[in-house]
Write a structure and sequence with these properties.
The complex is a heterodimer of chains A (about 270) and B (about 260). Chain A has about 270 residues and is mostly helical. Chain A is about 70% helix and about 0% strand. A two-stranded antiparallel ribbon of chain A has the order 1-2. In chain A, α4 packs antiparallel against α5 and α5 runs antiparallel to α6. Chain A starts with 8 loop residues before the first helix and ends in a 6-residue tail after the last helix. The N terminus of chain A is likely disordered. Chain B has about 260 residues and is mostly helical. Chain B is built from ten helices and two strands; from the N terminus they run ααααααααβααβ. Chain B has a two-stranded parallel sheet with strand order 1-2. Chain B is elongated. Classes of the chains: A mainly alpha (about 270), B mainly alpha (about 260). The interface between A and B is large, with 50 and 52 residues.
């Protein structure tokens, strides 16, 4: 029915507005609206966003997982100059690991998607997703995976060393970039000169990647590292006013050690 | 006698309530002030300062203190110059505050290249305005040394933000060296002469800026493109105001009257 064609439209519109005003104006209706507003139905999209710990743009998680494994295999093939047979073995192992993860995700979605939760109980739904999200972000080819077992049995120790070096280099680039951003942030606080920036960079301790590669915010790591630089070393680089200001900043972030250790970082 | 309908009664009641509770117009306020000057004066004294203006002043002081402290480190200033520059800094703050008061808003809504309000962009704009005032107080050689450091600072910030994005992408895309260089160049071209907001780097690749990534896609293989396109692109908002940095800034420039 074309609403605009009916003569009733002329009175329906103001009437509907009056109803809306009445509904939200009366306490009883407001409470009713609030109850409705405070209920959430879990969607597949929401589970994906919780799993990846970021917004999802609707891309298939399965497709991304498969591609993530594929880029890893291609890199190893290139680094280690693997034969087509070796490549095939790694790809098969990858597919098995991805399949296992997708099954876990499918089981989780079967349990949650379409269910409605009160706002104050939505956390319960998230708690069911969170452990799998951590597992997912560590990567499906981590320690204990079929991929790792096949890799260890397929390539030589020398080739394994090449793969590990590539991973370590990748970690160092990430860590270096995080240090750079942190120094740029500090520069806005204590007016670092070019020489001071470069010297301060040298004071950041080297650190290896965390065990199991959790999806960690590196800013927390570098802020903690700033807090741990010995004052005697800072005195070589900064003047008194800068050290005093940075001291307040360092104090703020000195308590992260335990958290970072829980994330798998090892400090001397 | 006119009998009021219920609707008219409530209508009149609403009007009366509105008139009673509405703020005084300026001319009315003056009239009241003339009758009760002591009360009005007391109200002015007790009236809390505008929090937005207070934040504006804190932000300006943060910028001026850090920038003048920076200048003092990179250029050998005479005592006379130092005094004149601090005076110029104070004058800059007051003129910005006057502008903020007269324009009704405490913030200069400076936007970044995506048209979103950005405290980074606002800060850069204010620093540039401050530098114009400082310029005339420096000798050419001093100005040149200061400008070189400022350019270095800018290049550094751009480089670290790009490094941050490229390394985070690399962590997910397993790029080779050639790809990393090509992707970094795409970011560099995208930013051009603009300084990227530092806050954009703080999510370390969990999100990407809302760039058109077509040029980047050309450097990648099909699987990498699929992963790239799964990363959410966001338009970064304001981030933290620099007024909040105040507790951690170097404090060797005295701006007190």
């Amino acid at each position: 029915m074309n609403l605009f064609a009916t003569p009733l439209y002329a009175i329906r519109l103001p009437l509907s507005w009056l109803l809306v005003i009445a509904a939200f104006g009366s306490p009883a209706m407001a409470q009713f609206a609030a109850v409705r507003q405070n209920q959430f139905t879990v969607t597949e999209h929401q589970v994906d966003a919780w799993l990846t710990n970021s917004g999802s743009n609707g891309t298939s998680l399965a497709g991304v997982l498969t591609s993530s494994q594929s880029v890893k295999v291609k890199e190893i093939v290139k680094l280690c100059e693997l034969s087509p047979e070796q490549q095939e073995q790694l790809e098969l192992a990858s597919q098995v690991d991805v399949g296992r993860m997708l099954q876990k995700i499918a089981d989780l979605k079967a349990e949650l998607v379409g269910k409605t939760f009160d706002a104050n109980k939505l956390g319960e739904a998230y708690q069911k997703v969170a452990p799998l999200g951590v597992e997912l972000r560590k990567g499906v080819s981590g320690p204990g995976s079929l991929f790792q077992k096949v890799l260890n049995n397929t390539v030589t120790p020398e080739q394994i060393a090449k793969v590990e070096k590539a991973e370590l280099d990748r970690w160092r680039r990430q860590y270096d970039a995080a240090i750079g951003v942190e120094i740029a942030m500090i520069q806005r606080l204590i007016a670092l000169t070019k020489d001071q920036r470069e010297a301060l960079w040298e004071l950041f301790p080297d650190i290896g990647p965390p065990e199991n590669r959790p999806d960690i915010n590196l800013r927390i790591l570098v802020q903690y590292q700033v807090s741990q630089i010995p004052v005697e070393d800072l005195e070589e680089v900064l003047d008194d006013a800068q050290i005093e200001a940075l001291g307040r900043y360092r104090q703020r972030y000195s308590g992260y050690k335990q958290y970072l250790q829980q994330q798998g970082f090892k400090f001397d | 006698m006119i009998a009021l309908s219920t609707n008219r009664f409530f209508g009149l009641l609403s009007l009366i309530l509105l008139l009673i509770t509405s703020p005084l117009r300026a001319d009315e306020a003056v009239a009241v002030e003339e009758v009760r000057p002591a009360v009005a004066a007391a109200q002015v004294i007790q009236q809390p300062a505008n929090p937005a203006l207070q934040a504006k002043r804190r932000g300006l002081e943060t910028i001026v203190k850090v920038e003048l402290s920076f200048l003092n480190r990179v250029v050998d200033l005479t005592d006379k110059q130092r005094g004149d520059i601090v005076a110029a800094g104070k004058s800059f703050i007051e003129s910005e505050m006057k502008d903020a008061r007269e324009n009704g808003g405490a913030q200069i809504r400076q936007v970044n290249r995506r048209g979103v309000h950005s405290f980074d962009a606002e800060r850069r704009d204010l620093e540039a305005s401050l530098r114009k005032r400082i310029h005339k107080l420096l000798e050419d050689k001093q100005w040149e040394a200061y400008s070189v450091e400022i350019e270095d600072r800018k290049q550094f910030q751009q480089q670290v933000v790009i490094d941050c994005f490229v390394s985070a992408l690399d962590n997910r895309l397993n790029m080779d060296k050639g790809q990393r260089i090509a992707v970094a160049q795409v970011f560099r071209d995208e930013y051009g002469d603009q300084l990227p907001d530092l806050q954009t780097a703080l999510n370390y690749g969990r999100y990407l800026p809302a760039f058109d990534l077509q040029k980047m896609e050309k450097c990648l293989n099909e699987d990498q493109r699929k992963i790239l396109n799964s990363i959410q692109r966001v338009t970064y908002g304001s981030g933290n105001t620099f007024a909040n940095d105040r507790n951690f800034i170097v404090d060797d420039i005295d701006l007190e009257p």
